[in-house]
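Consortium newsletter contribution from the modelling node. Members have asked for a concrete example of what our holo predictions look like. Here is one, prepared for the 1,3-dihydroxyacetonephosphate complex that several groups have been discussing at recent meetings.
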Amino acid sequence: MADNGGARKPLMSGNWKMNHNHLQAIQVVQKLATRLNDKTYDVVDVSVHPPFTGLRSLQTLIEADKLPIALGAQNCHWEESGAYTGEVSPQMLAKLNVVYVVVGHSERRQHLGETDEMVNKKVKAVLAAGMTPIMCVGESMEERQEGDAQDKVQGQVRAGLEGVSDEQVGGMVIAYEPIWAIGTGETATADDAQEMCEAIRVLVADTSSDDAAEALRIQYGGSVKPDNTAELMDQPDIDGALVGGGSLDPDDFAKIVQFQASSD
Ligand code: 13P
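And here is the predicted structure:
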């Protein structure tokens, strides 16, 4: 699809996965904040997604120091409360001023049996609680080799957005994360990533509306590093990155977030 002339502000998100306890989380965000400045925040949005145990500490830090860094979670349940041992509700996250919630990460789909139906329930629950879902989609290497990558990803997008209003879709984030690129050091080429992100946007224009497709932010995720970020972000349908390993170290993540500085 046509370049939107930069109307969609890139969202650079650090998904820490099961790393950094709450004390480490504070140190990482303090260091990150010293490396970013107002110019950075003018051109990109930044979010950090610690494990649940780090959320309250980071909320306190972000609010006390008035940091323009958004707090994110990595998952939630779809119910508001109840007998769901070990789960955390969207309302509990909203109470901590969480802004973004990652939903349907491939590690949860793969290892914890999360289905498209569960992902759809979570997307709706996160929206209902006033937060923004970052809905993850992506194909396996086998699916790519079989030529099924687009079908797989479009199926996940269709199912995940079922029953979500056009306006809500427009405010969401979808993260395209090819499973074979996650934590492997193997990044999708900028062309391949663009092709899939464009296919997602075209599908959303079809299933929701042109306006929703234009407004929707699509991140790329999978071995994003300081030296490959600028090329990926240069693609017209890629509006940010969901970064795993590269977000754990504040120096690396600051470089990724400030990819525009290195491409000037
Ligand atoms: P890596 O950046 O470690 O490949 O992880 C990507 C990811 O899964 C982010 O959600």
